[in-house]
Amino acid sequence: MSKKPIKLQSALELFNPSVAILQQHPLIYFVLLVLPVLFVAVDSIAIVGVLLTIVFTPALFVAELKNANGKTIALVDAFKEGYKYFWRIIGLGIIVGVLVIIGLFLFIVPGLVVLRRYALSPYYLIDQNLSIKSAMEKAAQQTKPYEWDMYNVIALSILLGLIGLLGLAGLIVGTILQVLYSLAFVLRYYEIKKASKA
Questions:
Q1: Core-most of 21, 41, 122, 137, by most CB within 10 Å?
Q2: Owning domain of residue 83
Q3: According to the 3-state scheme, what is the secondary structure of 133-175?
């Protein structure tokens, strides 16, 4: 008989802890998260924003893992540590992205299942120094008992993104809210990691 899953915080309850981490480490998230978004927002240099996002992503995941665990990391150290995982994170992003796109074309539901299974896989990969395959397998396995907790975080994140469809003001507000909520996934990762050991 499988043990009953531990109750996790609601998706909304993760908002304030996410904001608190951003407030404690504003510089690192401005550089790694906000700066690429600002570049993407300007049509003539959007490609620069896309490239910065790709280059900064491993460092961003490292910083999120450290900060959500109550630790501080310097920006330069986040880059140094992140580049150890650069190609695995890029490979993982491509694989998961392709699976999500294929899943969305197959009546949307399979794409949402893929998101639930693999949304936390970058954290497993970096935090536990796993291969792409092992990170995907572990993320899928450990999020399974908490699938609705995962769907709630994904749904709220998507909903905040949809605010951007409401004109320029909506785009600005939606982007700000998405940034403020951006650490919800790493917070959920730590909740599930702790629960899986209980």
A1: 122
A2: 12-197
A3: HHHHHHHHHHHHHHHHHHHHHHHHHHHHHHHHHCHHHHHHHHH
